[in-house]
Specification:
Elements (H helix, E strand, L loop, with lengths): L2 E11 L5 E11 L3 E5 L6 H5 L10 E6 L2 E2 L5 H5 L2 E4 L12 H11 L4 H14 L15 H13 L5 E5 L7 H16 L3 E5 L3 H7 L2 E6 L2 E7 H5 L2 H6 L6 H8 L12 H18 L1
Parallel strand pairs: 3-8, 3-9, 6-7, 7-8
Antiparallel strand pairs: 1-2, 1-4, 4-5, 9-10
Helix pairs in contact: 3-4, 3-5, 4-5
């Protein structure tokens, strides 16, 4: 399995003297869907900004597909590891979709016909039913999130980092956006999701990494990490609601590591059928 991102003992100290990362070792393989979690100030955003050179470690090393990232500029790394910011309005600055999504390609010197072709493909990939001449500033928050994602996907990075992508969205729009991200992952992209939403992490990620005070305190399967009540409490995180229910139903042998509604439905259907058969 190809290793996409690896860090070795990285530390990061901000100019004001605050140490945000305290010796982080992590490896993320190509094709993974990893949720990075923790409370504000835990270091999660600081960590993922090292993956594409937006930040450089005070100490330690970051490797991107086996190469020492210090050998490359941030612009070069961003073509491999794309970063979608928490607020899409921090990325969007053009008055048309074509100019916004095509900006990176034009900046890299792509011919206009290829820019047009790739922009159209990116818009289709994020299921954004808008004209190339539409102004992204006048779109809904959910649509602006899709514009921001498309503007990164158009560069065809191998890794996509999304920093709190559901901020400002209601639950329905959050699910729609995350289904899109899931599809992108299934097509081969490595996804690193920064989030504080345990329910979304449970529903979509396969692996969860939890940071606290600049250190990793948990790294494992979503099912294992997000069903560990004591572990989550250390980071002031609450287990998924369905897991809380599962633990309350242990008297009927509901597995205590259920973290998805679908898992609960499947178990209860089997339980009801077995109960009927026993009568």
């Amino acid at each position: 399995m190809t290793e996409a991102i690896r860090t070795e003992g990285i530390e990061y100290v901000y100019p004001n003297g605050f140490q945000a990362l305290k010796g982080i070792d992590i490896s993320i393989n190509e094709g993974e869907f990893v949720a990075v979690m923790g409370q504000n100030g835990s270091g999660k955003t600081t960590l993922v900004k090292h993956f594409n050179g937006l930040l450089r470690p005070t100490r330690g090393k970051v490797y991107v597909f086996g190469e020492d990232s210090s050998k490359y500029t941030t612009a070069e790394l961003c073509k491999i590891v794309g970063y979608v910011f928490q607020n899409p309005d921090h990325q969007i600055f053009s008055s048309t979709l074509l100019d916004e999504i095509g900006f990176g390609l034009r900046n890299l010197g792509y011919a206009e016909d290829e820019v047009l072709e790739r922009v159209k493909a990116a818009i289709e990939k994020v299921d954004l039913k808008k004209s190339l001449t539409d102004n992204p500033h006048f779109m809904s928050m959910g649509e602006r999130h899709r514009v921001a994602i498309a503007s990164i996907l158009v560069l065809e990075p191998k890794v996509l980092i999304l920093d709190e992508p559901t901020t400002g969205l209601d639950y329905k729009r959050s699910l729609e956006l995350m289904e899109l991200v899931k599809k992108i992952n299934e097509e081969g992209k490595t996804i690193v999701l920064v989030t504080h939403d345990v329910n979304l992490a449970a529903q979509f990620s396969k692996r969860v990494v939890i940071l606290k005070d600049g250190k990793i305190i948990a790294d494992g399967s979503s099912k294992k990490v997000l069903s560990d009540t004591l572990l989550l409490a250390k980071s002031n995180l609450i287990p998924p609601q369905i897991n809380i229910l599962a633990k309350k139903l242990k008297d009927i042998n509901v597995p205590e590591d259920i973290i998805k509604v679908e898992e609960m439905v499947e178990f209860l259907q089997k339980y009801v059928n077995l109960t009927k058969l026993s009568k």
